[in-house]
Amino acid sequence: MTTSTRHETAQLHPAGGLVRRPTAGFAWANDLPRYDFGPGHPMAPIRLELTRELVRWLRIPGLVDVPVPDVPDELLELVHDPAFVAAVQAGAVGIRSAEFGLGTDDNPVFPEIHTASSRIVGSTVAAARSVWTGQVPRAVSIAGGMHHAMPARASGFCVYNDVGVAIRWLLDNGARRVAYVDLDAHHGDGVERIFWDDPRVLTISVHESGLTLFPGTGFPYETGGPGAEGLAVNVALPARTRGDAWLRAIDAVVPPLVEEFAPDVLVSQHGADAHGSDPLTNLRVSVDHQLAGARMMRDLADRFAAGRWVATGGGGYTVVEVVPRVWAGLAAVAAGLDPDLGQRLPLRWRLDVSERGLPAPLMWGDGETVTLRPFSAGYDPADDVDRAIVATRHAVFPHRGLDPGW
To answer: Which of 80, 114, 147, 148 is catalytic?
Structure first.
């Protein structure tokens, strides 16, 4: 998109010059917002609709749509128990609903729950397939990132674990090793559980500590099962951690482990709920910092995973003012661009949002300066974030033959 005034809409700058071929895929189907737990539920489907519309108005160079196919039960059963899938199909009515984590305030049953949940799985598998088969080097599934879903139980707004299914699909189709990095404010417990004892999968979750946030897990000593020691990695950050410290934690833990693991594909989850305005969490990470984190994932994939990167959405409950900015930015980063976050968002999108009676954000970023202070520059034992970093490095790095330092 071009404009005659610098301040009227966001400018997109190709990182490597003019785009001559597709550089990223965007998995989308118009029925993805049918994943809807009803009025008042925090996971409002409008966050997907607004993100899709923003991506359209931005006209991101190099970004192409990836169609989302229906998925058979056999694909879901790569990670989910058949009895659980059958229960979701039946609406999990009656006494067994609690057994399967359905019918709760977090995971209420709705008529299309199986179809809508499986479509999200299809979105992330389609993104993974497009990357693994070489259609695009990177792909985004904004509807995906349902990282709390367990093999036999829905949890934390998540019914089917699309990330787990996509990673298992990659392994079944030739990938030898897959690295998964979860940047949601909540611990990526479902994905970790699925691959707890699988030496082919590295899971790293950088999240608010379970001492202050659901699901109450994800501590440094949780490091993987027999044969996969050191392949489950958890950085438990204190409440109110700000953006620069958040990036410092990622940089101190993720790159050394991903480099040592040498994955064939990098999969990442980008829940927008680490933002300071999110009503369900206690971190203070700006849009600017979250997109810096996305660029870090893109660069890691380029350096250590042959450029193959699959990125998903996830949490995010400031559904109008924050989520579309983070996930549209994620799509732009995946396409190889470095969005100018000091620009206004497209006027047409802002008018569409306002016409819905919603508060339209004006700027792409929050106006925060992003400064990464590498962990190698020094450790402050009085700093809560630095102590969290050290706890994780000491718990995990020796398993991988890495020096934890300090």
So the answer is: 148
